[in-house]
Design brief:
Shape: elongated
Largest sheet: 6 strands, antiparallel
CATH class of the largest domain: Alpha Beta
Number of strands: 6
Order of helices and strands: HEEEEHEEHH
Structural class: alpha+beta
Strand order of the largest sheet: 1-2-3-4-6-5
Number of domains: 2
CATH architecture of the largest domain: 2-Layer Sandwich
Strand content: 25-35%
Number of helices: 4
């Protein structure tokens, strides 16, 4: 069985939303807890399977703290690492030799990419967009508007 067929079969058996983009690329979609949804793209090359998920856009501020946090996570992660593209957007990616790919490894890889992409979202947003969060919070609360979309960051505004 080819790696792409193995990926498709895994998605079908596990009821994972997926779409074949072309004859070497599969897009998978998941619901998140910190993120509404996330997508993982798998690209099958001649020697490697590459998995990648977008995590957050280029931070507005505090780049040093964001990059430090990512590097600290890279030490702990298996099968994947954080990185940035030419625009500074943050991704979690993996590259696995084709010969090693089986359903167990696909399961582990999906677990690492989905759980870390989702669980890191609020931390990265707080580190890299705190000024924007504070401005949005102030704007919404000054007008008596709901700030439900900022609930994950309410600890930044709790007064003692």
């Amino acid at each position: 069985m080819t790696v792409l067929k193995e990926l498709i079969s895994f998605c079908e058996v596990n009821k994972i939303d997926h779409a074949l983009v072309n004859d070497t690329t599969l897009l998978t979609t998941f619901s998140g807890t910190q993120r509404k949804s996330l997508s993982i793209v798998f690209a099958v090359g001649q020697h490697y399977l590459r998995g990648e998920t977008f995590v957050a856009r280029n931070p507005d501020d505090n780049h040093e703290a964001v990059y430090r946090w990512m590097l600290e996570q890279n030490i702990k992660l298996v099968l994947a690492s954080y990185g940035v593209d030419q625009f500074g957007d943050i991704y979690l990616s993996s590259s696995i030799p084709i010969a090693n790919v089986d359903s167990e490894l696909i399961d582990q890889l999906l677990g690492v990419l989905v759980s870390n992409s989702d669980s890191s979202f609020n931390t990265l947003i707080e580190l890299g967009f705190r000024n924007a969060i504070e401005r949005e919070w102030a704007w919404r609360t000054s007008r008596g508007l709901a700030a439900d979309n900022l609930a994950a960051f309410s600890h930044l505004f709790d007064s003692d």
